[in-house]
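[job 0412] stage=fold_complex status=start
inputs:
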Amino acid sequence: MTSPATATQPSGANSGIAAFTQEWANALTGTSYLPMTQAQLKQLLNRLARQLAGALLAEPFDLRAGQRVGTELVAAHIASAEALGRTVEVVQLRLVRDLGLVAEDVADRLARLLAAVTTGYTRALRDRTLDEQESIRRAAMAQRSKAEEALRASEARFRHQATHDALTDLPNRNLFTERLTTALAAPRRDTDRVGLCFLDLDQFKRVNDQHGHQAGDRVLTEVANRLRQALTGHLVARLGGDAFVILIERTGGTRDVIAVAEAALAAVHEPAAVAGHEVTVRTSIGIVERQVAGTSANELMRAADCTLHWAKAAGGGRWMLYDAERDRRELTRQALTAAIPAGLDRGEFYLDYQPLASLSDGRLLGVEALVRWRHPELGVLRPDRFIGLAEETGLIVPLGGWVLAEACRAAGSWSVTGGTPFVSVNLAVRQVHRPDLVQDVRNILERTGLPPERLQLEITESAMMNPADEPVRALRRLADLGVRIAIDDFGTGYSNLAYLRDLPVTELKVAGEFVAGLRAQEPQADERIVASLVSLAHALDLTVTAEGVETAGQAERLRAIGCDAGQGWHFGRPEPADRILARLS
Amino acid sequence: MRRPDWAPDEIDIERPSVARMYDYYLGGSHNFAVDRAAAQAMVAAVPEAPLMAQANRAFLRRAVHFLADAGVRQFLDIGSGIPTVGNVHEIVQQVAPDSRVVYVDTDPVAVAHSQEILADNDQATVIQEDLRHPDRILRHPELRRLLNLNEPTAVLIVAVLHFVPDDDRPAELLRTLYDALTPGSWLVLSQASDEGRAETERSDAEMVYQRTGSPLWFRNRSELTTLFDGFELVEPGVVWVPQWRPETPESSVNAETSGFLGGVGRIGD
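[job 0412] stage=fold_complex status=done
writing structure:
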């Protein structure tokens, strides 16, 4: 680049450029953040000022120098509207003067140079702005897709957590139900069959109790792993606690499911090391297998669950196959049990009475109250259909209480010249063990006006195993009141002779099965047993009633033995009290 | 435009971000309309807000230069925001190319942007984390990859502590950082102060930042000095940021209008 003849740059320009640079730097201060030191800024501006001065004087005049200066300013982050404005102002006002530039068309050139600076600056600023906008948008988009990915991942994780068991990572009840429902809803063929194995560890509670819950959890994890490995291809799910289930789809029949159950048993029964001990875990399995058509998830689950309970009840460590007939029977029993309270409320129970007759003169000594249930659908039910259920469930307490009260109420109203019969009522073990038994009986007697000696309570031997027990003390107090106490079915239970001496018993009822053996002409073992019982009872001042007397021959032999009274068809079947009383009067 | 239902809520570019507002104050274009609207509201309330940000950024530059000259080669910049012009790694890697810088910010877009800028720089990285969880920052694998805290490290908490109210126990946060540092390490703090400000200015500014989800919590000189507990403040102590080792005497004139107090401290040997 040559100096044009028409322009001169006088000496002293160095001090001039320094002054200009300082002025420019001051003008830029505060327009935007300048990422440099003051010294660096001045160095830059000094260089740019020289370029501008050079361009003003250069021949030929090159506007691109102005554009380059504008671009460089922006590149150095001197990039704001204010910075441009002030630059134009400072250059316009000071550059020519401070640098003492002399040229004939300098004003003209300055205007065009500043236009070029502005153009270069603005273009660079615009590009920079667009770049920055693009970059921040890209960042926002990158962040958005990252967040969406995270959301999808968390949804997948959530889905896994919602469908899997946290401890064992097996599918949980939700997933199992989903899969079972799908299998049932969309069978491939009409003849498709499906099977379930319900597993429950036997006495798992003991592992927890003995080794702690952590050990219990380890056993569950171990069992889960073994089932998973042994039963690939089938869905193994944990239903909760120590209950697992295996879904077998498209089975070829019961045998396929049994094979799965056998494999599961074998896998679980391998000994496991828990807390340094070798623990043998056993499991029970309930199997159900049937055609998909016509069944539902609920039915299958219930059937498998119920079969599992049978397997447990049968001792555990085994599989069992669902038995529809057995299920129906049990359902009926359960339904019957459930209906007892309502039956009591609605007065569906009533009493029949069976005579107890003297063997010496045939006189009616007493009657045994026997409960009947006039079931609204099943008709009249005898006690063997429901007493056992009531005893299992505890419903025997309200039912027995009703029988006692009703028998006393009825008996209190009887009046027979020449000896009104006593009423004999069976007391279940649970009733005997109730702490308020004595008070209850006392209240009933008071309320009904029945004299205590006309009430006989029949209890079984098992109700009074230990003479020191509270039940025995209660019976003693009842006996002290004058109530008769009979041991029912004597000879079939423990037949503990020792307690007969210490207990407040007044009578023994000899079980019917001994009486049944009395039909032979010549004395048999049964007759000798009954004879011994009678003489033993008499030795202890007890009377003896024989149950199940069906024939005159039996009655005759019993009389010959010395038995006091008899009960059975020979003396009369159970029937309403008024008919018995009518015959007496 | 309605956002589709599946779009996660946490990317909320309809809410102003303090990081992008700060970029706007500094003259950058890494911001959206919503950020500019909030920043303009701030400028209406406090006209010198851009100058305050610039003064603060200049303080950061001088402090980092100072530390690089002092031989520090590891930097942990918490609350780095949008690292546009004059960011830490550019400054220190000019002085010493082997310097390592870990940026931390809680703003996901700022972090994504930093990742883009740092993609080719294996001496600098960024972590998305909050100053309120220094333990998580300290055990972050990216930090562990780049920084050896057994060697002197500078922790920069510049223009961010005013987003941490006293309820978040800033002294405990700093204590956690202090405990992780070795003697010879440094702490650079700066934050907004309302010393000498009119009450209306203060409440207007607070209102603007309330909408960003990062409300302001001003501190005065003695409060900020207390937060240097364990560090020895170097001259001139906690001052208005333009007064901290100014390059020229005139650049610290009217320093209090910067609205930012700052200082640099060192853990003694």
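[job 0412] summary: The first strand of chain B starts at residue 74 and ends at 78.
[job 0412] exit 0
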